[in-house]
Each structure stands twice: as structure tokens, then as C-alpha cells.
Design brief:
Blueprint: E1 3-8, H1 51-67, E2 71-78, H2 106-109, E3 143-152, H3 165-168, E4 173-178, H4 181-188, E5 201-203, H5 217-225, E6 229-233, H6 235-238, H7 246-267, E7 272-275, H8 288-297, H9 302-307, H10 311-324, H11 343-350, H12 355-385, H13 391-400
Parallel strand pairs: 1-2, 2-3, 3-4, 4-5, 5-6, 6-7
Length: 401
């Protein structure tokens, strides 16, 4: 099972409110102080998107399935903001391809109306999208997870706060993009501590320019102990958009190779994942084995190179599940009677037996009496043998004799 946890998902712009006067004086103390929710009233994640945006994500998603990825991360990227962006994923983009959902949910997926990929072919369908979900789906599906990714510039502007917990719980993965040394320190220490808003992934800028801040090995190790992994995005560096000049593309590749080798040196190749990421060309994705080969060329051992696209992303998802259930209340398990039992036997299974309590009390009494008996026997033997003499007294008596 191979993972690509960074597929950029287009986000519709916030709706323009008609009334703007008088909002400064009559703000509510609760939800009124937050930014308007652009996802309110949506029936699917495709509402408000342009046709080109839908087609672009459909092609990227289909290419990921064709290359052999089993789990993809639909990522919402945001700029620094204090209020978390509400999840646009009212439903998954393609629930009929996700094995966690039933095949009857194809109607929800077809509401996008823009080239839905099918599981049998792995390519996008027709422009209407009417017949893509109706046909029987064969072959392995693609698990789709949601991800909230934001740029971290300053500790004061940070969406991972207690007031945004209910919004952030709607996402499977939380990740950040630190741009300076203070932001990197904050991401590795405070934001990586276990909690309901814990970071799962730290994405580092590797291609735009050489590192302008020092990577602290102690901070990196602390983040890894908390279960945070470091993400390397290869698409924009190795396969940039055709609009990027040739000199800039060559400089990006040089920076990517140098910075990635430095990350691998500091982390010893552990706790690293590879993803495609934004900014690349339309065909900038590569297969999982190609990514493994790229990691080996950059200096990672062979076993750790494969873990970067297999094991480490899986551990990220497991850690994210624990984040969403942080301090949750679990119900007590109940013993269900087997079919065919009588009413009396079924009621006896539901009630705890009282004999166990009596047996425990009897065992405590017996153990207490046994200890008491051993003490009495020891005191009797001491009385018969007389007071014990120390080694010095015995040696002195032997010398006197």
C-alpha cells in the first residue's frame, strides 16, 4: 500500500455578504466573531468550483490511481490565519472509489459533474460524469483522507488553538509550512505536543532557496518523538510548470538536492515521507517505486526509502486517529448473548456473578490467616532459640573463652 498525502484540492472563495454595516457594534461573543464559513449550505465539496478546477483535480487524482497509490490526501492549503478554515469536504470527492463507503454513494460523487475517474480504468470519464459511477467498479479502490495545510510565519498567528478544535477535528491530518527559524521551533516543540490540535506533518521549503535558518537536531528529534514526520515535496522541484524559466528550474533542482540531503543527514533518514505537492506540472507525479529510487539517490538507505512511501505515512494516519479521539469517552463493552439462549441464561450473562466476590473475600481471609500463622510460628521459634546475637558479640565470646 503506497501513500501520497499531498494532492492540492481547489477551494471556492468565500461568498460576499450583502450587509456589512453595523457589524462592529453588534458582534456576538461566540461564533459571530469568527470569519464567515464559506462551506455553509453546500451539498458536496464541488460546489462553487470552476470547471477547470474540477477537471484539474480529476486528472491528478486519476493519475495517482494509475501510478499505483492506494491512499491520497486531499489537501486544503491556507495562508496564515487565526481562524481555521472549515472543511469543505461535506462528502469525499469520489466516495464510490473509497472502500470505506458503500457503492451506493455514487450519486453523491457524480454531483461534481466533471470527469469523475472510475475504479476500473483509473482515468477520468466523460465531461457529463453521468455514467462514471453507474457501472460496476472493479479493482482496488483509493482511500481519500482530508488534510489541512497552512503556512506558519509567526507564533501569534496560529490556527491550532482551542477555539478551533471543533473545526480541526473535521480534518484527518494537520500540517504546517514553517518559513523561519522561530516558526520551525514552534512547530517542533509546542505544536507537536500530544493534544486535540497536534501537528502530524511538518513540510519544509526545499526548492525555492537554500536554508536561511539552522535546523536544530534536538528540536527535530523532539518532534519525531511526538510522532511528527517531515515531508519532502518533489513535484515542484523536479518537474516544475512549463511557465517557470529554465534558469529558475535548474536552481530549484540544485536547492532541492542540497536541502534534502541535509534533512536526511540530520534525521538519519528516519521519520520522512515523500509527497508530490503543489506547483508541479500536470504530469509531475511519479510512481511509488520511482520515489523510492529518488530517496535512495538522495542518500537514504533502501529500507528507509520504502518506508517513506509505505510505513511512515501509515503511522501518520494512525496518529491522526488518536488526535481526533483525544480525551474521548469510550463505552463499556457489553456481552451479547448468543442466538438460541433462553431468557434466563441471557439475563445471567448480563449480570456480574456474585460468587466471584465471595471467592475473592474468602481468598483474602485465607491469605490473611496464613500470614498470621507464619508470623506466630516465627515468633515461637525465636522464643525457643533465645535472642539473636550479632557477629561482634559471638566473636567476643569466642575470644574470652
Amino acid at each position: 500500500m503506497y501513500f501520497d498525502l499531498f494532492l492540492p484540492f481547489p477551494v471556492a472563495s468565500a461568498p460576499i455578504q450583502a450587509k456589512k454595516k453595523g457589524q462592529g457594534k453588534n458582534k456576538a461573543s461566540g461564533s459571530g466573531a469568527s470569519t464567515p464559513n464559506p462551506t455553509s449550505g453546500r451539498r458536496s465539496c464541488w460546489d462553487g468550483l470552476e470547471v477547470e478546477e474540477k477537471d484539474g483535480f480529476a486528472r491528478t487524482f486519476a493519475l495517482s490511481g494509475h501510478l499505483g497509490y492506494s491512499v491520497v490526501g486531499c489537501t486544503v492549503s491556507r495562508e496564515p490565519e487565526a481562524h481555521a478554515f472549515a472543511s469543505p469536504f461535506v462528502a469525499l470527492p469520489y466516495p464510490h472509489l473509497d472502500p470505506r463507503h458503500s457503492h451506493s454513494s455514487t450519486s453523491t460523487a457524480n454531483e461534481g459533474g466533471s470527469g469523475l475517474p472510475t475504479r476500473a480504468s483509473g482515468r477520468s470519464g466523460s465531461g457529463s460524469g453521468s455514467g462514471s459511477g453507474a457501472a460496476p467498479l472493479k479493482g482496488p479502490g483509493m482511500v481519500q483522507v482530508t488534510r489541512y495545510h497552512f503556512r506558519l510565519d509567526d507564533a501569534k498567528v496560529n490556527p491550532l488553538i482551542a477555539s478551533n478544535t471543533s473545526i480541526l477535528r473535521e480534518y484527518d491530518i494537520l500540517s504546517c509550512y514553517p518559513t523561519n527559524e522561530k516558526a520551525m521551533q514552534l512547530a517542533c516543540t509546542d505544536l507537536s505536543n500530544p493534544g486535540p490540535n497536534q501537528l502530524s506533518i511538518i513540510t519544509l521549503p526545499l526548492h525555492e532557496r537554500p536554508f536561511h535558518f539552522r535546523l536544530n537536531r534536538k528540536q527535530v528529534k523532539q518532534a519525531q518523538r511526538n510522532g511528527v514526520v517531515f515531508e519532502i515535496l518533489y513535484s515542484a522541484a523536479l518537474f516544475p510548470s512549463p511557465t517557470i524559466p529554465a534558469d529558475t528550474a535548474r536552481r530549484w533542482r540544485q536547492n532541492f538536492m542540497t536541502n534534502t540531503r541535509e534533512i536526511i543527514r540530520i534525521t538519519s533518514g528516519k521519520g520522512i515521507i515523500f509527497s508530490s505537492g503543489p506547483g508541479g506540472s500536470a504530469d509531475g507525479l511519479r510512481g511509488p517505486l520511482d520515489v523510492v529510487n529518488l530517496a535512495a539517490v538522495l542518500g537514504m538507505p533502501a529500507n528507509l526509502s520504502k518506508d517513506a512511501v509505505c510505513l511512515n505515512p501509515k503511522m501518520v494516519l494512525l496518529k491522526a486517529q488518536a488526535r481526533r479521539t483525544f480525551k474521548a469517552v469510550f463505552s463499556m463493552p457489553k456481552m451479547m448473548p448468543a442466538p438460541g439462549l433462553s431468557t434466563t441464561e441471557a439475563a445471567a450473562l448480563q449480570e456480574p456473578p456474585e460468587e466471584d466476590i465471595d471467592v475473592a473475600v474468602d481468598i483474602d481471609v485465607v491469605m490473611g490467616e496464613g500470614v498470621k500463622r507464619q508470623r506466630e510460628q516465627g515468633e515461637g521459634e525465636d522464643a525457643k532459640s533465645g535472642p539473636k546475637k550479632s557477629k561482634k558479640q559471638a566473636t567476643a565470646q569466642a575470644v574470652m573463652a
